[in-house]
Amino acid sequence: MVTRSRRGEFSRVQHVGSRALWETGLQRPRGSCWVRSASENTACVLNTLRGAESSGNSGSVTLQPCLFLLTDVFYVHKEFNSKIPGTISCKAPLVLDESCGCCRQASKRPLCCSVLLSSCSDPPQSWLHFSASLAPSAWLVDLQCGRMWLYLAALLGLYFLRRWYRERQTVENLREKYVLITGCDSGFGNLLAKQLDVRGLRVLAACLTQQGAEQLRKATSQRLQTVILDVTRTDSIAAATAWVKEQVGDKGLWGLVNNAGIAIPTAPNEWLTKDDFVKVLNVNLIGLIEVTLSFLPLVKRARGRVVNVASTMGRLAMMGGGYCPAKYGVEAFSDSLRRELLPFGVKVCIIEPGAFGTQILNTQIMKDMLQEVWGRVPAEIKESYGQRYFDTYYEQFLQLLSTASPNLFLVTDCMEHALTARHPHTRYSGGWDAKLYYLPLSYLPAWCQDFLLTLRQPKPAQGI
């Protein structure tokens, strides 16, 4: 049975065939499982030792090692550190009780390893030493690690499956939805108008020129209608708003896509004037805001969508001029608008394209623009930079333009999803350069961004 040594040691091993059970303390009916959880196991050991301490030897009880954790040993030691002056130890090959249902299941588990818990180099007088060489049924540590990774993989799988399912749910009655797109003369707006027309939506394409409107009508069905809109002129916006009201009637405007934008002039800030900044800001930010405010009542009526085209340059300012400040402004305006319109059932989405071969990045236009800007830079500023700086900057800028992707559908597919999906994203990154370079770079510390973005920057003539 259980014996207590002079130093307070409790230890007994009963051999049953090829099995050995650790038995201490109180009587326990055979055939029942002692513990169901780690916390109950700890309480079991404590109660057993308390009983043995108070009543000496009074029978036997089987502790199931399959549920015994190292943390339990620490709890036991903490409880009895001051009560038992000696050392409690048990060294035996532990196997499970075949009469216990839990143990019969556990005995099918694979081998684990030996577990040894001992004190530090200077152990307290009553440290609990527990050493168990686990038999083929000892599987706890490996099983817990294996289950953890299994559960994690299952959770990740369920997450991506749910996301895949939600992303493919579309809005009903798309053929009855009206969508207004600005900047449809070319580029993203032109391609998006054609895509939505193919899907059966009622597209209202706003073009800057009559020529652009006529070309778009020839390439689409009779459902698509065009209107002339200059986003920098209030009277043009008002006229377009009145026309759209007549078209949509009581249904309201399901989608507003603010796509119109320009990128030039773009150059180092010191080379530009206030008018250069104002020109870009008026189109890319102020015009976008005015158009949105004008059409917002119609969008609220339909509980629809506002899709604002920003840029990766709205997260990472890589060049001078008004383009980056304007796109930063679009990001901020869209974020505040999204929160304000949430109670009305209106969703606001932001499109952040990388570099694409649209008319905005036309190589010849950019060449002429840079030459024109450099030609009017004051002599003092020119001297501080030097002709060599301009030549290097000019070549690097053209190299950047040459990397622009011709696959505009990577962006228009994002716009289409934002308009037609039941659960649109808040932000869409269009293009692999946006996903793999610009977006990750935008999350780095400022000093790291500065280092990477200025690594190949030419040195000014009067630079330090």
Automatic annotation (TrEMBL):
InterPro entries noted in UniProt: NAD(P)-bd_dom_sf, SDR_fam
Gene Ontology MF annotations: oxidoreductase activity
CDD domains reported for this sequence: type2_17beta_HSD-like_SDR_c (cd09805)
Family: Belongs to the short-chain dehydrogenases/reductases (SDR) family.
One of the Pfam families matching this protein, by short name: adh_short
Keywords, alphabetical: Oxidoreductase
PANTHER family from the UniProt entry: 17-BETA-HYDROXYSTEROID DEHYDROGENASE TYPE 6, SHORT-CHAIN DEHYDROGENASE/REDUCTASE FAMILY 9C
Name of protein: Retinol dehydrogenase 7-like
